Amino acid sequence: MKRRRWLQWGCAHCAALGGLAAAQTAWEVPPRFAHPDVASDEGGLWALMDREEARLRRSPFRMRDEPLGHYLSDLACRLGASHCPDIRVYAVRTPFFNASMAPNGMMQVWSGLLLRMENEAQLAAILAHEIGHYLQRHSLERLRDAKARAAFATVMIPLGVYGLIGQLVALGGAYAFSRDQERDADRISIQLMRTAGYDTREAAKVWANLLAELKANPAGDPTQDSVLFATHPPSDERRVALQSLGSDGAGRTGENDFRAQLKPVRFDLLEEEIKRGRLDESVVLLTRLLSNEPEQPELLYFRGEARRRRAAAGDVDLAWIDFQAALRTGNAPAQTYRSVAELYRAANQGDAARAAWKNYLEAAPDAPDVGLIRQYLEESK
Ligand SMILES: [Zn+2]
């Protein structure tokens, strides 16, 4: 996977910028869309997306946690209002930041995005942005754009309209919007958030948080080695634009509601985040989450684990501090003991390592690595 490939806000590829004049133009939610004629280009696009959706329904990556699914659908419904019956939301298990919405009403929200949200208003900002693309039928515009361009490109002509749709989707073009379309979707997202009663100031915070995470990379300027930002470097401008659009925030943030919904799946999402192998970013992310939930044992364990695995200067000491803080809450994940044992083992403190492993076995007697730990204990006697 190429550097930064993970950071795709459906259309984050396309920074939405400038031109706040559009914000003053009145915009009204269009009436529900009828199913397009199958023989039309739009019908072809829908048919292709219907097939994609059937595949997604069966995919092992689809998160099947029912309360979370209902929560996301309900949120999309409140934002989409009259279009609610046409929108279907799928949470997808992938530790990257991405959301997208297809013209047939299929919306995808990836787990790496869910993990990065601080409250319901931030999630609403993203869902509303995707709904904005849907309501403005931006993918159809893109398709027609591509067709117009293809008329001059001999390579495309033999493919015909359906081949062209397939190519567009294959290239990710179905979700890649123009800067104008991004700006349009951002403007609509703020309006939909406001109507649904959310604090619109949270939209810009999503972007600010992501930028902070990207800047964590010691390699320097994140825009330089980012596939997505390489062509649209001024992502901070999007944050600024959203900030001006949503500066009047008066609604709710829904922090506790969001946290309660994510709780049952968060451990697994954090585990996948660490496995992603971008430990600099993970440490920044976990530090931010901990600033909202100080002393949260699960977050302490994972930040300690990110540091233990990264093992940069000072990391072992800091990991140790996080593990101890997690254990002091009396509610630390069992895995904390295992990591503590690893630290002891690395420091050649065999007795202390054995004690920590025993604590782990006691706390997680059914863990998949129990056999391995028993073997260690036997061998190290
Ligand atoms: Zn977009």
Detailed description of the structure:
The chain is mainly alpha-helical. The protein has a domain at 21-245. The protein has helices spanning 21-24, 41-58, 66-80, 111-116, 120-135, 138-150, 160-170, 179-195, 202-214, 235-245, 255-275, 279-292, 297-310, 315-328, 335-346, 350-363, 370-379, and strands spanning 88-92, 99-101, 106-110. Strands 1-3-2 form a three-stranded mixed β-sheet, with helices on both faces. A hairpin with a 4-residue loop joins strand 2 (99-101) and strand 3. Helix 5 crosses helix 9, helix 9 (202-214) runs antiparallel to helix 10 (235-245) and helix 12 runs antiparallel to helix 13. It binds zinc ion. Zinc ion binds next to helix 5 and helix 8. Zinc ion is lined by residues 10-11, 129, 133, 177, 182, 185.
Record the strand order, biggest sheet.
Answer: 1-3-2
Order of helices and strands: HHHEEEHHHHHHHHHHHHHH
Using only CA atoms, what is the Rg?
Answer: 23 Å
Largest sheet: 3 strands, mixed
Q: What is the quaternary state of this protein?
A: single chain
- Determine the fraction of residues in helical runs and give it as a percent range: 55-70%
Overall strand count = 3
Which hetero compounds are present in the coordinates? zinc ion
Entry summary:
It is built from 17 helices and three strands. With 381 residues, it is mainly alpha-helical.
Topology overview:
Layout: H1 21-24, H2 41-58, H3 66-80, E1 88-92, E2 99-101, E3 106-110, H4 111-116, H5 120-135, H6 138-150, H7 160-170, H8 179-195, H9 202-214, H10 235-245, H11 255-275, H12 279-292, H13 297-310, H14 315-328, H15 335-346, H16 350-363, H17 370-379
Parallel strand pairs: 1-3
Antiparallel strand pairs: 2-3
Helix pairs in contact: 2-7, 3-5, 5-8, 5-9, 6-7, 9-10, 9-12, 11-13, 12-13, 13-14, 14-15, 15-16, 16-17
This protein binds zinc ion.
Zinc ion is lined by residues 10-11, 129, 133, 177, 182, 185.
